Amino acid sequence: MAVKLRKRKFPVQEVPLIPWELAEEAYIVYASKYGTSQSLERLAQRGGFGAGEMDMLYPKWRPSLQLIERLQGELENLKVDFKRVSAAGAVPCTPKSNRSDRCARWNL
Hints:
The chain is α/β, with parallel strands linked by helices. It has four helices and five strands; from the N terminus they run E-E-H-H-E-H-H-E-E. It has helices at about 20-35, 40-45, 50-55, 60-85; strands at about 10-15, 15-20, 50, 90, 105. It has a three-stranded mixed β-sheet. The protein has a two-stranded parallel sheet with strand order 4-5. The longest helix has 27 residues, at about 60-85.
């Protein structure tokens, strides 16, 4: 199942902003330990979690962030490739279009 990330970011002290969805994962553990007197929204307004808190609450956040950033970079590269190939009048190959003169071979 594909997950579309919202553009909203969450502050983590000592590091750049992270996707809100990663903070939601940490908040699930935070809320179970400390209650919900502070919403995730309120925590963001107050500066977010510290990097150490994120490590404790959602240990997979760093590799998840690296994966998200890598995939976003790959997506941007694919968009550039698609524009280039489309501008040349070619179309991506599919099993049914392999014989087409306009079928572009993608080197992925």
